[in-house]
Inverse folding.
């Protein structure tokens, strides 16, 4: 097996794995990462087939710009798997199924057409016709495939608008006010007020020293959980606390 064949099989398998991971992933962020993984492998395949311009565009534009934008939107909006249970656009499943079937037919037809009636003249000779790979791509895009290129641009803009509509979530309940949050907080059990920070009312501000409430009792939740689990909580020296109280009383 030559080096080119080895690169093809490794990257092709990884690309398929990334596509399958996108389909079966339950979280939108994981799906976006799988897409980025697939695009990187496709870029390597482009470069291995003497198409460095397409490979760099695949990495810089799609993986580096568009996919990172998708990730930022997902992190800001916070879309999760529960949002897929609510259809923001009514009666969209049947058209989506029909469009998916149409896309599959077009892919099969395109692959079949590319495998039949093709004269192998070599990539180097094809690039030399226009003076290079980039020049050849530009001539094909703006002459033979101009209409398809513009239609694809319109579809990408439509897809971006559709993603904004799908990511928008309607608020089914009114936002709780500050007064409602305060009543909910004080309706439960436990200490209602704000707790002092660790080390308060002690002779130092060590994080392993529990805070003392105004009545002199220890605030257990003022100590970080890992310290309490390890038993590294420093006991409160009552004599030091009494000395601090005496100094405070004398300075009043």
């Amino acid at each position: 097996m030559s080096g080119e064949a080895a690169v093809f099989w490794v990257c092709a398998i990884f690309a398929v794995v990334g596509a399958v991971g996108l389909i079966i992933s339950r979280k939108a962020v994981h799906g976006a990462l799988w897409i980025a993984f697939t695009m990187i492998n496709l870029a390597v395949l482009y470069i291995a087939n003497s198409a460095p311009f397409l490979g760099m565009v695949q990495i810089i534009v799609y993986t580096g710009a568009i996919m990172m934008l998708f990730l930022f939107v997902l992190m800001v909006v916070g879309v999760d798997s529960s949002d897929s249970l609510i259809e923001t656009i009514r009666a969209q499943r049947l058209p989506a199924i029909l469009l998916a079937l149409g896309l599959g037919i077009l892919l099969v037809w395109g692959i079949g057409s590319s495998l039949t009636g093709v004269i192998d003249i070599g990539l180097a000779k094809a690039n030399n016709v226009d003076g290079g790979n980039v020049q050849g791509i530009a001539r094909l895009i703006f002459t033979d495939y101009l209409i398809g290129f513009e239609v694809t641009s319109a579809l990408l803009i439509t897809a971006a608008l559709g993603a904004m509509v799908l990511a928008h979530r309607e608020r089914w309940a009114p936002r709780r006010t500050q007064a409602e949050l305060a009543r909910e907080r004080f309706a439960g059990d436990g200490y209602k007020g704000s707790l002092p920070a660790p080390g308060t009312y002690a002779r130092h501000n060590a994080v392993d020293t529990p805070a003392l409430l105004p009545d002199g009792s220890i605030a257990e939740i003022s100590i970080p959980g890992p310290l309490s689990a390890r038993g590294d909580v420093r006991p409160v020296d009552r004599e030091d606390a009494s000395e601090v109280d005496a100094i405070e009383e004398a300075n009043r």
